[in-house]
Design a protein that fits this description.
Elements lengths: L1 E8 L9 E8 L6 H12 L18 E4 L2 E4 L5 H4 L6 E5 L6 E3 L2 E2 L2 H9 L19 H5 L12 H5 L2 H4 L6 H11 L7 H8 L13 H5 L6 H16 L1
Parallel strand pairs: 1-5
Antiparallel strand pairs: 1-2, 3-4, 3-5, 6-7
Helix pairs in contact: 3-7, 7-10
Length: 236
């Protein structure tokens, strides 16, 4: 089948506004959008810029907006976003992050917010044995959050950031939950300054966009609400 990739192009050094460029190519329905992007760059326009690495949905580097929804290019099949012959598939960079070029964005602010959650185990208590033993039940309390690959899809999909640029965002809150619900962690007090603030967990308005676009199917909104309940309980 033949489709058209309508890719948003932007080169900040060129002194022009972002524009859409169309690239027509023959593909199989089971081809990935990443495969199509590689072909465009190799066969039609070598100046096209995007990120990719593992190509197996693990690194998260090729997150972008495909067909109006945040997705991983390496996990999105043509048949999922193209209705049929001649379909136009739009491809755009993630939102709320500065575009460096074409589909590449600057994740600096995203990772700064991630680091503000102190995404590491905090526990200064003496260890009785060689490691801190944890039961399967305790592990299950945060197990899902460990699947996050920091692709930024949830961050881009969140409408809260349109009016609250300082909001830490869903990914950072998932990382906070990964540790505050860990029975071995003692770092909640150190995380409260950011977590329990107007730009922290309370900025979430429960739009559920983050949950819908997460490529790892993490129940992000549910996790954020669980964090809210934990903080509320601590104040009671």
């Amino acid at each position: 089948m033949r489709i058209v990739l309508r890719i948003q192009r932007f080169d900040p050094e060129a002194g022009r506004q972002p524009f859409d460029a169309d690239y027509s190519l023959d593909v199989q329905p089971t081809d990935r959008i990443l495969d199509a992007l590689i072909r465009v760059k190799d066969e039609q326009d070598g100046s096209l810029s995007y990120r990719r690495s593992c190509a197996h949905g693990v690194c998260g580097s090729d997150a972008m907006i495909i067909g109006g929804k945040e997705r991983l290019a390496c996990k999105t099949l043509v048949q999922e976003v193209a209705a049929g012959e001649g379909a136009v598939v739009t491809v755009q960079p993630l939102r709320w992050l500065p575009v460096q070029r074409d589909l590449m964005v600057d994740h600096g602010a995203f990772f700064q917010k991630f680091r503000s959650m102190k995404p590491f185990l905090i526990n200064e208590e003496p260890v009785e044995s060689r490691e801190r033993i944890q039961s399967p039940e305790d592990r299950s309390a945060f197990d899902e959050t460990t699947s996050c690959i920091l692709c930024g899809a949830c961050y881009s999909s969140c409408p809260v950031l349109e009016s609250k640029a300082l909001y830490v965002g869903p990914a950072a809150l998932v990382q906070a939950a990964r540790f505050i619900f860990d029975s071995r962690d003692r770092g909640l007090p150190q995380r409260l300054g950011v977590l329990d603030s107007a730009d922290g967990v309370w900025a979430c308005d429960n739009h559920f966009n983050c949950t819908r676009v997460c490529p790892r199917e993490i129940k992000i909104t549910k996790t954020i609400n669980a964090t809210k309940r934990l903080l509320t309980k601590g104040k009671a």
